[in-house]
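User: Can you help me understand a structure? I only have the sequence.
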Amino acid sequence: MPPVRLAPRDELAAAARVAPLLRAARELGGWAAGQPGVQAGAALDGAQARAACEELELTADELAAAWQVVMAAGQQADAGRAAAHGGKSLRTSSADDVLDEWNAALSAVLASEELDGLATALYTAGAPVRIDALFDAYASAAGPGRSGREPGREALSRALETLADLGVVELGTDETAGGLTVALSPLGVWGVHRRLLDQGWHVPVLSRAEAKGAVGLLATLASCDAEDGESKINAWLACKTQEQAAAELIAAAAAGSPGLRGAAFAVLDRIGTGAVGQVRAALSEPLLRAHAAVWLHEHGEDVELGPADRTWLLVDLGSGLLEEADPRDVVSELLPEVSPTAQAEIVAGLWQVSHPGVIDLLTTLSEHHPEPVVARAARKAAFKARSPRSGEPAPAP
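Assistant: Let's start by predicting it. Here is the structure, written out as tokens:
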């Protein structure tokens, strides 16, 4: 299962309080408690169902879903609704009480084979899914049910409506393809997460650092292996539009260290063309100009990209590697496919790059590069970089 971000309990409780199905179940439980002919735990007969629908203004499908919740929660007990809830409404009940009640309703609703399968599929997807594609995939995976027939779209549509009425899913529109989409709401993610956890699934949760935004995500990636990092990136991107994610990554890169800048543009690769607008706007930022120009060039965009951009980016990437890696590893990774002679030529000109990390990088190359010709070029370039430039004051000690 992908890692998920769980919303704060107060936000979850606020969403549960306005879930139409939970409200309908409370009202139906109160109505049933005042009907002497209603049997605890029994289905409503035709006359009772019609009376409940008329008095509570429910459709037949809404009544069926609400009664399922009522029976599971025991809200039709003789003591009545007021006693069952301590006389408190959904609005005045505590967050914990509301969420416990909502979670019991979810368990009752997901007793349906179609609903349980849909909720789990949406949790696994971790992003909005086209409804028609979801139906096709679910029908193919489910195959013939107990009745021997494949699940029909009408039944699955009703299942989605029930989930929406409980606040488990949110419906939307795919602007590019023009179709309807569905995704778990934050409340639905919390509820299905609890359910899967109880069933023994490994269901990781994003840490607080990751929940803070792009900076938290990028900081977390520094300590992840490749597989874990991929899952964290997927989960983070699934919670945002492409433009939102790109804007957050650009802002993090502008305010961060060289290593964080490199990581941000690596994640922007996952967004692709959806990030082009935000990356192009970053061309005006001195610290991001080279990263943005190279990124746009690699994604087929028309952009001015000169030697100065490439050398500045080389220094920035090297400085980023020095934040975490052993200097000897940095030396071997910086220009791995370039001959020693060509490396020496490139390194000899790095002193001209206006980058705060250029002296540290040149010093590292001079002390740890295994090729003498490159090490000598780095020592000379470092000396030039430390010396006052023509018309410029000497750097502060």
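Now, to help you interpret it: DSSP finds 22 helices and three strands in the chain. Residues 259 and 323 are 7 Å apart (CA to CA). Let me know which part you'd like to focus on.
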